[in-house]
Amino acid sequence: MGKKRRRSSRRRPARRRVLGVALLMDELDLETMREYDSFEFSDYDTYLATCEREMRIMRRAGRVVAETFDPVEYREFCREMELEADDPGSRARYAALVCEEGDPLPYRGEPIEEFVAALAGRERLRAMSFRIEALLLDVPVGRVMEAEDYATDIFLWLLSRGGAGLHVFTCHVGGEEGDPLEIVAEVEIRRNEMMLHGEAPLVLSQMLTLARATGTPGSLIMRSMTRRIDPATGWPVKIVRGWFIGNGEISPLSGKEIRTASCTDQRTGDALPPEPAVEYVDAPHYRP
After folding, report:
1. Full-prediction pTM beyond 0.70?
2. How far is CA 252 from CA 50, 255, 283, in A?
3. Helix 71-81 vs helix 88-101: angle between axes, to the nearest 10 degrees?
4. How far apart are CA 30 and CA 158, in angstroms?
5. Which of 216, 239, 213 is nearest to 226 (CA)?
6. Could you give the CA distance from residue 258 to residue 241 in angstroms, rounded to a whole number?
7. Within 13 Å, how many C-alpha atoms sit on residue 87's CB side?
8. 231 to each of 228, 236, 245, 278, how far by Cα in Å?
9. Terminal-residue alpha carbon distance, the chain
10. Cα 259 to Cα 282: distance, rounded to the nearest angstrom
11. Interval 92-151: pLDDT, tens
């Protein structure tokens, strides 16, 4: 008769609770919340310090995640749910909802100012993404799909030209109407693995799609970090390449052109000293 399998006496680790919070992003948001008598904070620094202390305590009991607290959206939430807005319980229900339905950012114990800055930066990216989607609504679907394929091909081609290491993209797309779209996105290549830093690379792809689908002009700069050390500064050397975006295509800039553009104050037109440990090189042509 075979031996009976004995069940392990070790307990499986319990799943950690997920605790969600929603944070006000700035002084203006806090000032809006001060209309409620139950809201006890009068200045933003005290509010942040209190949130940091409470979130670090919460981490002892579970995993802490956070979303933004939008006072305008909160007021609408209370109206739709027939809740009293001037009630801490209503604020807690709103925080739980936005964390459940959103994509909350995990809090790992970093300084609260740093965490709020990351949360605010992600909100700006989301707003930019929504704006691009709105601009593409009037473009024929077929053209948008072709532009998406083109943007993906361009992005992968750029990374293949840069090789292994960290690549920082600065993209500007915009015409005369409305504020231009600007973004800085980081992508790291390790052997054959591509690592996107945050959501910015995805929004960058959307910007390239918009430029392709609508013919909106712009520019793209790629800074690639190398392992070479600049003897004058002791810093790693950065390789900088640039392209002009026009009529749905990217056109390479020479090293001299990108150096001139990078070393000119865009507001005054005055010359700026060249950035140390940087090499400006001719950008390659994209040939599909």
Report:
1. yes
2. 51, 9, 5
3. 100
4. 43
5. 239
6. 7
7. 11
8. 9, 9, 35, 12
9. 69
10. 10
11. 999 999 999 988 999 999 999 999 999 999 989 988 999 999 999 999 999 999 999 999
